[in-house]
Amino acid sequence: MGDTNGSTKRPRTESKVRSTDSTTEDVAATRTPAEVAALIEDHLDLVNHVVFQVAVNFPRHVDRDELARAGALGLVEAARRFEDSRGVPFNRFAAQRIRGAIIDAVRAADWAPRSVRLLARQLDAVEHDLSTRLGRAPSADETASALGMSREELDSLRERLFRSVVLAFEHMAVDSGDEDLTLLDVIEDRTMVEPSVQLEDRELHAYLRDAVALLPERHRLVVVGYFLEERNSEDLARFLGVTESRISQMRSEALAMLKDGIERQYRPEDDQTVVDVTLVERRRTRYAEAIGNARNWDDRIGEPDQMDQALAELLAGAV
């Protein structure tokens, strides 16, 4: 009996669903395209009204125009499927369709998990509440305390939220102002170098090459061997007849000399007056002067050779 009852109920349900779908299609089919178009045109303002209601629940970076376009598609779908016989006003029926279309569009475009969006809403709510109570923007420590987490956890949360934001290049970079600037207008193009920056780099490379050339011989051999020839400490120690610890010491001394000698080239002349109280200081001063006198200024900003570039790249993180 149980099997018989189950087998008789299921076809009834499916038949009812097919009957409902058939009724919807029949009603939609009886409405002419002109009537559907008139229904859409008469309720276009409803799209903006629903967008205004739901936009407050989305982050600021969500484009309101995109929401309106998704809502307009929902309005078109509502006009095609609306049934007068159900007794529901079209405004209410269309508003639900528009809201659903907007939410579906936002979820489809958002690749971040819902848990991240939930944390984002909690963070916004806490910051808004603290701003209202304190009369100012809350500090990071105050926000973390209100959320019941550490400062490191708050920083990690914000990093996750920042990574979850995907913007189009056409997204407006500023909300207001005389200029309509998009992200494409304000993002730095690292492949394009300003002439002044290029000249400064050439000057620095020239200073660096001269500084290496003017190092004491053994220090110069360590720098060139370690950074340009990619020789290890053991090989250099055997070549110079010293211990590996001495190689490490000479490398540190050479880098300190390079750093001090190049930095002195960019100090104002008023700051160059140093009392030579020690032999070491006098040596540093003579070394810096030798770097400055090694080339004329026009030679420094000329086209760099491959050694200049390679040396600059290898020593960039060490000096």
User: What is the CATH C level class of the largest domain, in words?
Assistant: Mainly Alpha
Radius of gyration: 36 Å
What's the CATH topology label of the largest domain?
Butyryl-CoA Dehydrogenase, subunit A, domain 3
Secondary-structure-derived class: mainly alpha
Q: How many domains make up the coordinates?
A: 3
Q: What pattern of helices and strands is seen along the backbone?
A: HHHHHHHHHHHHHHHH
Q: How many β-strands, per DSSP?
A: 0
Helical content, roughly? 55-70%
What distance separates the N and C termini?
89 Å
Number of helices, counting only DSSP H or I runs of 4 residues or more: 16
- Which stretches of 5+ consecutive residues score pLDDT under 50? 1-27
Q: Please summarize the sheet with the most strands.
A: none
Q: Mean pLDDT, rounded to whole units?
A: 77
CATH architecture of the largest domain: Up-down Bundle
Query: Strand fraction band?
Result: under 5%
**Cα shape:** elongated
